[in-house]
Design goal:
The structure is a homodimer. By secondary structure, chain A is α/β, with parallel strands linked by helices. Chain A has three helices and seven strands.
C-alpha cells in the first residue's frame, strides 16, 4: 500500500448546509452533476467529500448509530485496477485489519472494499474506472 | 481558506501498535525524534499522523469520552504565519463555525486554533514555525 490518501469523506446530516459552510470558507466544489447526493472538493492531490452520514456508514458496512463503530469519517485509498483492490485488501488482512466489506462492485460503477485499522478508523480501498491515480499518486477530479 | 488539508490525525489507543499496523501496510514514518509521542507519514502533499486519542481530544478542547463531540479524527489546515491563523478563524467564525479553541500558543512551539464544522468535524488551524506550506499548498515534512 502506497503512502497516500485519495479522499477524506466527511459524513454530514445536511448536504446543502455543509456545502454552504465550506463555500463560505472559500472552497469551490468540483463541477459534477451530483446535485445534493455528494459534494467533492479538490484539495491538491486529494479530494475532500461530503456525503450523508447514514449512507456513508451503510457504504462501509457499519452501523451509523454505534458511535464506537462509526466516527463519521472515512479515508479512501484509490487504485487503478480491481486487482489492486484485492492485493491491498490481502495486505491489510495480513497486517491484522478487520475487513468490513470484501471486494465487490459498487452501485456507482466502481469496485471497492473496506477495512478498519486497530482503532476502527475506516479505509475504503476503491477502484473508480472514471478517474485515475496519476504517476505521482494523486487523485485528481478537477485541476 | 485555501482548498487543502495539511494533516489528517488519527486518534489511537496505542501508538506502537498502530505504527506497526501502518508499517505492515508498507508505510514508512517520517524520521523524527518523537519516539512514541506522535507518528507522521508523508502522503504526497499532506501528512497522516497517529496521536493518542485522549491527547488529541484535549488538544482540540473537547471531551474524549463524548463520542458525539469527538470522532477521534482531526483535520489540520496549516498556514505560514500567526496572522493567517487569526484570519482563517475569523473567516470560519463568519461562516458559522463553532470555535472550540481561540488562537493561542501551543506547547510544541506552534500557534493554533480549532473550529468545528456543522457536523462537528474538527479542524485545527495551525502555524508550525518549523515547517512551511509551499507555494503549491503542500505540507512537506519529508520528501
Amino acid at each position: 500500500m502506497k503512502q497516500r490518501v485519495s479522499i477524506v469523506t466527511l459524513g454530514v446530516e445536511d448536504i446543502p448546509k455543509s456545502r454552504a459552510f465550506y463555500k463560505a470558507l472559500g472552497w469551490k466544489p468540483v463541477q459534477h452533476e451530483h446535485g445534493d447526493d455528494i459534494v467533492f472538493f479538490q484539495c491538491g492531490g486529494m479530494v475532500v467529500a461530503l456525503y450523508p452520514r447514514d449512507l456513508l456508514a451503510q457504504d462501509a458496512g457499519v452501523s451509523p448509530d454505534k458511535k464506537d463503530q462509526f466516527s463519521g469519517i472515512t479515508l479512501a485509498y484509490n487504485v487503478n485496477t480491481k486487482e489492486e483492490v484485492h492485493e491491498t485488501i490481502e495486505q491489510a488482512r495480513k497486517a491484522g485489519a478487520k475487513i468490513l466489506k470484501e471486494p465487490q462492485d459498487v452501485f456507482w460503477g466502481g469496485y471497492h472494499s473496506y477495512f478498519a485499522d486497530p482503532d476502527g478508523h475506516l479505509w475504503e480501498v476503491a477502484h473508480n474506472p472514471f478517474t485515475l491515480i496519476d504517476d505521482q499518486g494523486r487523485f485528481i477530479m478537477e485541476e
